[in-house]
Write the structure tokens for this entry.
Amino acid sequence: AVVPTQSTGGAAINPSDYNQVEGKYPVPIDLPGVGGNEGSAKVVEVGESVKNLKVGDTVIPKVAGFGTWTTHKVVCETEVKKLPSGLSVAASAMFAVNPCTAYRLLQDYRSLSPGDWVIQNGATSGVGRAVIQMCRAWGVRTINIIRDQDNAAEVAEDLSAIGADAVFTVSQRKEMEEFCRSNTPLLALNMVGGRETVSLLKCLGQGSNLVTYGAMSNSPMTVPFGLMVFKDITLNNFWMTRWTRQHADSPAEREMFEQIGTWYRSGELVPTPHQERSFFEYEDAFRDAFRVKQLFVADRTLGDSRAENLQ
């Protein structure tokens, strides 16, 4: 079965895409190849033997390494999976990585009840923003760490607007530790790694969990013996690509998709702030990707006069 698809949502640029192009990611690109691990597509035609998809369905890649930086692609239906209906372009194109990562981090390592506290670094990231909004929907409260920056107050206000309960900068360690004495987190989410891991460990309570899912500091993670052993903290790790491989088409994945889709449709979850680009603007997109989320949109590309020369 073959499914020609047109990417009406587009394709995001994520840090893992850079790693993959550099040859540092566990999922390599077969050369010559197309980059991009995340994106959505709308089915525009189906083959006679296609059973589970129809024209108009929105789909995403089943696994990483799909090559989403393209306007059209012909694939077998087993290479993609259907998304819930009624999602915006941005929501569908950025569905698979950040919201799903946030969902699994909050579901798989600790049983959380309304009123419980979660602490995270990298709070302004796509995962961090999704964590804040999902916790708000569940009644779980969040402590969020952001970088020291001139507009820190503005950033904190932005996170508070989507549901953050407390926001601290990296340099506000003492204030944060004092706050956590009476608002003790049961779960810490570690995207940064390096020495910032210690700040999370100091704030956790007895018998809690720290889950590492990134290493944006590019530094070895420091875990002091006393904090880990005497507080009985369990260290976990998470990689969305691995989870997806192990749970593709499972009831757990379908439940996650439906819940995230429901939140998007209700407005309880909104896509990461982003900038839409044509594929012809790729140089600007890659230059700005670490400043603001970049999203290649096929409709912008196909509407560009330069697209007339594409065959």
In short: DSSP finds twelve helices and 13 strands in the chain. The mean pLDDT is 91. Residues 251-266 form the longest helix (16 residues).
